[in-house]
Amino acid sequence: MLPPKKRQPGEYIRKLGEQRQQSAILRYALAGGVFVGTLFLVSIFSNSSVGIVLFLGGLTTSYYLYSNGQYLMKRAGDAQNGAKAETQVAALLLPLQRQGWQVEYNLRIRKWGDADVVLYSPKGNWFVIDVKSHSGTKVYESGRLRKCYGRNTYDFQEGDLISKVKGQASEVKSLKNARWVTGMLCFTRGDVDIPGNNAGGVYVVTANNLVNTLLQLDS
């Protein structure tokens, strides 16, 4: 049986987003400080080659810090979107909980970070769900999950999502002493165009189809 729920949906990734945002603000502050300090030093050494070296070095450092801050701020936004997606999925799972399903959020596992959602049905079936907020239409090509926008198809920057979910399912199986754990990917945005929603043994669904798919797999 699952232990009492210890973490809230989206808790881990929300904290990660806050940390990234704080780091980004620090980079912005450092970039501004370096730029101001560079201008001050250049004013002192304005009549020598040292001033030029200081200006170029300070400008390069300031730009690097600012660019790094922008990257971290974008990553913070991605994390917040992920937290919202996990919260959305949690709301969809409430009817199942009323039917006796047990739900655990953000379960820490050794190799794969954390499992967004782990479910245990009244019939004794286990599921692990990795929640994503990517848009586009998800397809399964040559053993890899990809996303389509019009005629263009792209890989996921996170790498092989199917292997990741399989790894999570294996870890949860070991942690919970389960006979089998079904791996699932749930996207809160975009569509899925995969026959049977089965991609190499992992079920890929939209948020709207999540509960129905779980009930079908549990029957």
Q: What structural keywords apply?
A:
219 residues; alpha/beta; Trna Endonuclease, Chain: A, domain 1; 2 domains; four-stranded mixed beta sheet
Measured by DSSP, the beta-strand proportion falls in 15-25%
User: Helices and strands, in N-to-C order?
Assistant: HHEEEEEEHEEEEH
Return the CATH class of the largest domain.
Alpha Beta
The name of the CATH topology of the largest domain is Trna Endonuclease, Chain: A, domain 1
Outline: elongated
Q: Report the uncertain regions.
A: none
Tell me the major beta sheet: 6 strands, mixed
Give the total of beta strands.
Answer: 10
Structural class: alpha/beta
Number of domains: 2
Percentage of residues in helical conformation: 40-55%
**If helices are DSSP runs of H or I spanning 4 or more residues, what is the number of helices?**
4
Structural description of this entry:
It is a single chain. This protein is α/β, with parallel strands linked by helices and 219 residues long. It folds into two domains: 61 residues; 136 residues, Trna Endonuclease, Chain: A, domain 1. Helices cover 51% and strands 24% of the residues. Strands 1-2-3-7-10-9 form a six-stranded mixed beta sheet. Strands 6-5-4-8 form a four-stranded mixed beta sheet, with no helix packed on it.
Note the topology.
Elements (H helix, E strand, L loop, with lengths): L10 H34 L4 H50 L3 E7 L5 E7 L5 E7 L4 E5 L2 E6 L2 E4 L5 H16 L4 E7 L3 E2 L5 E2 L2 E5 H12 L1
Parallel strand pairs: 3-7, 4-8, 7-10
Antiparallel strand pairs: 1-2, 2-3, 4-5, 5-6, 9-10
Helix pairs in contact: 1-2, 2-4
Summary?
Keywords: Membrane, Transmembrane, Transmembrane helix. The chain has about 220 residues and is of the alpha/beta class.
